[in-house]
Amino acid sequence: MTPVLLICILCVFAYFAKGVTGAASAIVFNAGLLTALALGLAGGLSLRDGLYWIAIADMFASALLAVFLWRGVKLERFTLLLLAGMVPVTVVFSLLLPRLELRWLSLVLALAVVGAGLYLAARPDHPPASPRSVNRWALPTGALAGVLSGLFGMGGPVVFVLLSRASDDPTLFRNRTILISTVAGLARLVTLIAGGVYTTTHFVWFSWAAPVIVGATLAGILAHKRLKPRPFRIVLGGLVTLAGIGGLLRFALAG
To answer: Which of 21, 67, 167, 222 makes the best surface tag, with the fewest CB within 10 Å?
Structure first.
């Protein structure tokens, strides 16, 4: 399978998920890429190149979502606190990405993501946490999410846990993730560009995938209208768990 074909296939699922949730595209893309690498189906696409490429695609899709849904996006205290912790850490770990050995980091990531996914899918229904409680945890949650955001472009699993405690309403959840993923994604992309990691090939891959990203994102926006809170949280937990399982499979077969 060629890298372009694999990227386009993964983008169908990744950006449908982003259209539905406002985020999760990197979770789905990375899970698929890790699985393809483990099974020898990546066609020469490396994990590192995939991590670089998803920063371009995610920024494009986030901007697309913001254009269509900007009326629902609002600045809130806890999202600003979360971003205050997330953005600086995202920048630092984006700078470290080209220099780090990813194999053991991938194992830690996979285990953390599986835990977050199971929590989201299996936790009992609770009333939303108080604004004071959410605000108290926003800054450290953002800092932890920034590590995963900088290295893997997917701070979502950590962010989702906090957002799910703030509200189970799918539309409010998506509006918040649009803001968070757009700001963090821009910080990551600018940092990687400044680091000189991109080649012409990354942008050629993006040019082929862009129509797929647009179509899948719009389909996700339409599907979002049918979501109810509990099924939404279970599906979200399933997506997060899928990312972790893909990472564990990659680690096991690569070892």
So the answer is: 67
Written as one string, the DSSP assignment of 69-100 is HGGG----HHHHHHHHHHHHHHHHHHHHGGGS
Distances in Å between the Cα of 167 and the Cα atoms of 52, 129, 232 are 32, 8, 12
- Average pLDDT of the segment spanning 37-55: 86
Structure tokens at 249: 């499979």
Q: Does residue 91 contact residue 187 with C-beta atoms inside 8 Å?
A: yes
Helix boundaries (H) for the chain: 3-21, 25-39, 47-69, 77-96, 102-122, 131-152, 156-166, 170-194, 200-224, 229-254
The whole-number average pLDDT for the span 187-206 is: 95
The CA distance from 108 to 116, in Å, is 12
- Given a contact cutoff of 8 angstroms between Cβ atoms, the answer to whether 172 and 147 are in contact is no
| Average pLDDT value for residue range 16-41 | 81
Rounded-to-integer distance, Cα 24 and Cα 30, Å: 10
**How many CB atoms sit inside 10 A of residue 21's CB?**
27
Fill in the amino acid letter for 109. L
Q: In terms of Cα–Cα distance, which of 167, 159, 168, 162 is closest to 231?
A: 168
pLDDT in tens, 91-111: 999 998 888 776 776 677 677
Q: What b/e string do you get for 33-44 counting C-beta neighbours within 10 Å, with b at 16 or more?
A: bbbbbbeeebee
Alpha-carbon dihedral angle through residues 128, 187, 201, 11, given to the nearest 10 degrees? 10
84 vs 150: CA distance, rounded Å: 14
